[in-house]
TrEMBL record:
Its cofactor is Cu cation. The lineage of its organism: Archaea, Methanobacteriati, Thermoplasmatota, Thermoplasmata, Thermoplasmatales. InterPro entries: BlueCu_1 (IPR000923), BlueCu_1_BS (IPR028871), Cu_oxidase_CS (IPR033138), Cupredoxin (IPR008972), Rusticyanin (IPR001243). The chain crosses the membrane at residues 12-30. Pfam families: Copper-bind. This is Rusticyanin. Gene3D superfamilies: Cupredoxins - blue copper proteins (2.60.40.420). PROSITE patterns: COPPER_BLUE, MULTICOPPER_OXIDASE1. Keywords: Copper, Electron transport, Membrane, Metal-binding, Transmembrane, Transmembrane helix, Transport. It comes from the Archaea.
Length: 200
């Protein structure tokens, strides 16, 4: 009788530990892959407008759809602009999916804002260029980040004057060719990406 009670208790405790582990691992997985961290902060319309400025050392060439970044600065990245050539666009300094030429050693503070009313988006730096598969984020989930230099969760669509954002800084210390893309399924596949060239 005593043994049975202990077994019963042990089974109960094991079940509780198992459930707790499932909940904790689910929370970690959800946060890493879908990035609850990406969607909690938002800007108002006026905060967004005040960020929409060109910093010193940033030069824009609309003819070449290229932005030159010679000094460490903040770049506002707006995902899913309604006036873009397609919904698969990033608008940076007034250009859509521009090439960004960055001087080696420069740190860029990216403020990524979802201004799309319909879809989630993110903005990830990668060493891997197009073509991208439908599940361009799978690489991240499958192998723990091969190709991705940064990662963030999906930002919810804008609503009620809330523009959800995520910001991070990246030091471009190695010259070379890199890429930025949205890993929401189908977005990079359909052109939601651009090139980054780090020059000496
Ligand atoms: Cu997207």
């Amino acid at each position: 009788m005593k043994i049975n009670m202990n077994l019963h208790k042990a089974f109960g405790i094991a079940a509780i530990i198992f459930l707790a582990a499932v909940i904790i691992f689910s929370a970690i997985y959800y946060k890493d892959v879908y990035g609850a961290s990406g969607g909690s902060q938002y800007l108002t319309q006026s905060q967004l407008e005040s960020l929409n400025v060109t910093g010193p050392g940033v030069y824009i060439s609309p003819a070449n759809s290229t932005i030159y970044v010679n000094n460490s600065t903040t770049l506002l990245v707006m995902a899913g602009p309604m006036d873009g050539p397609s919904m698969y666009s990033f608008e940076i300094e007034g250009l859509f999916n521009p090439t960004i030429v960055i001087r080696e050693g420069v740190t860029v503070h990216f403020v990524v804002v979802n201004i799309d009313t319909d879809s989630e988006h993110n903005f990830v730096l990668s060493t891997r260029g197009p073509p991208y598969p439908y599940m361009s984020g799978m690489e991240y989930m499958g192998s723990g980040g091969f190709g991705f230099m940064t990662y963030m969760g999906f930002l919810p669509p804008t609503n009620s004057g809330h523009f959800y954002y995520y910001d991070f800084s990246y030091a471009f210390s190695q010259s070379g060719t890199y890429w930025y893309l949205c890993t929401y399924p189908g977005h990079a596949e359909n052109g939601m990406y651009g090139k980054i060239v780090v020059d000496q």
